[in-house]
Specification:
105 residues; five-stranded antiparallel β-sheet; 3 helices; alpha+beta; 5 strands
Length: 105
């Protein structure tokens, strides 16, 4: 039940982050838009954000859900989020949005 609530909250957050998802990938950390892979790796190395595997565990995403696309970091109001397309074991396509610092949705 908790995971279902997390998914519903993530879907609502996805709707709010939709403008960040379509923003250019060249946005700098701390601003708006989505980060490049290099910006993401630098933020992880500097301890600004956590890896997707840590955030996935903190957010309670089941291990049987599969990532189906890149896991970009998109920033909204200065807060970095992982925006991840996933497939459930039943084949349902979902998008999960989790805070890249603490795993909250």
């Amino acid at each position: 039940m908790t995971f279902l609530r997390t998914i519903l909250i993530a879907m609502a957050a996805t709707a709010t982050l939709s403008s960040a998802v379509v923003a250019p990938a060249s946005a700098a950390p701390g601003g708006q838009g989505c980060w490049t892979d290099q910006e993401t790796q630098a933020a992880i190395a500097n301890g600004e954000i956590q890896t997707w595997s840590k955030i996935r565990k903190l957010g309670g995403v089941p291990s049987d859900y599969y990532v189906t696309a890149d896991t970009p970091i998109c920033v909204r109001n200065g807060v970095p989020y992982y925006v991840v397309s996933m497939t459930s074991p039943k084949g349902e396509q979902i998008k999960i949005v989790l805070n890249a610092v603490d795993g909250s949705s």
